[in-house]
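Lecture notes, unit on protein representations.

Consider one protein chain, 444 amino acids long.
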Amino acid sequence: MKNIRFLLLSMALCLAFNVLIAQPRLNMFLDSNRFLDKNQQTILLLDYQVPYPSLVFLAQNNGYFAELKVVVQFVEADSILMQQEVTDNIGIRNKADAANRQKSYLNRLSFILDKPSTEVVFQAVDQNSQKVFNWRLAIDKLDPQSLISDIELNTEVRPDSLQYLAKFQRNNTLYKPEPSGLINKNLTDNLFLYLESYSSISDQSILLNLSLTKDSLLIMDEYLDFVPKQNNESLSLKIPLESLRPGTYRGAVVVQNGNEIAEQEFDFVLFEEAEEQFFLFPDPESEYTLMSYFPGSKLPSDWKALSLDKQRRYCTEFWRSLGASKGRSPQDMIKLIKERIDYANQHFSHLKNGWTSDMGRIYIRYGAPDDVQRETSSDESRFVRKDFEIWKYSKENKPVYLFIDIQMNGNYRLIYVDNDDMEATNPDWIRFVGSDFDTGKLDN
């Protein structure tokens, strides 16, 4: 229950403190968890999370940046035993992200606790606004004979070995902690509890019980019987959130190893916040096709198996990311793409909507070409004369596209492309326009 108690207490203390000295408060969250290493030393992890709207971002170096100065002190009486200072430079590309309540900065600091009990003082200052966050708490070492560690709340667990996320990884698995203990049901399907079990390796099994209550009613009561494979056994317990109602939940993990019993408690607040959704088509299949038009689109292979909520959630994140890459808000990005779709439907439609045609796809991706050449194929082609268009762009990699009206019905097909890895050239393209075609026309 440390998160909720700490959150409420810190809000009350900071409110009183700010009234007395009129010091602006920085809204952020901090969580502490203790684990034992292989030498039975206590490792203290301090995870802190700052919502973007709490920070002040300034424009510089083609982006927007906030600067957070963090100072951690280990004190005893009036003496500072140890001090560590960290400066977090937090950058975003899209100014709209600064007001997005669902985005936040997350960092982790790690310490070894040498003394049986230590008072930890944590202070964070937003350098652009001078808002301050203060936290002070006495923390005890774990007993070297402890059966389990503290419980860390995570909203995401997935395979990942990228170096820049190393501090949140364990055995090539990424654990995304949630220091606030505030879980948005609309964004998270499961809550994951990470903890470690400590014991001597033997054939004796360990019994674990996970319980969860809400309003004094038992919601979950599960047992796990396992034989540890190592002295420090990592455990990840999943709590599905789909059937849980919003509210405050309190839980406990009890471990029994022979006659020894240990318990650790945890809590979290589950809430539902109406998420602003971004999409252009009511049909998710059409949205999937549209998203595939853009570079860097790593679309889920199991798209049709996803629920409508998950599909909409993915679409929303897609338009946020695409807008951020272009320096636009998701609303502006969608407005721009809708204008291009409308233009494509008006000018490129033939038996099917223009936005699904080859010309429509390129127009939606890059907008109007910077140069258009309209000509007719020569008598040297394998077919009768046909109209063709060459589109050239000066943006991105300066791509070039050659479209030809193969059936002479206005449905232009893409037969040649240069500098666009998302498209393919027809190996026989020259036969459509004639062997005497001046390929210099394709230079850009």
